[in-house]
Predict the 3D structure of the following.
Amino acid sequence: MIFQSLSFLILHSSICKNNTFIAQLISDTENLGTVGMDFPDTCSLSTGGKCTIASIVFWFMAFLSSSMGVVAEKKAEKEEENTLGTEPLILPGENL
């Protein structure tokens, strides 16, 4: 998940902006007369990138909900331990 998130840094790097290799490919295809190859000047976010963003959000929400559940469970266990020690084992006037 972390490396998927870090892959978005490529969108702001020299790989996507002012890439000399892509510029060379474009000039070579123009010189050779090869038609049909189109290289965009900049990178853009595709469907896979949008799915990655959605998965990051859902993973974060799952982390928050599970951590809140663990905290609530520990709090309930602690309260249960505290109440067990305060109740008398034998109530006065109780028939045995």
Observations:
- Helices lie at 2-6, 20-32, 47-86.
- The chain is about 60% helix and 0% strand.
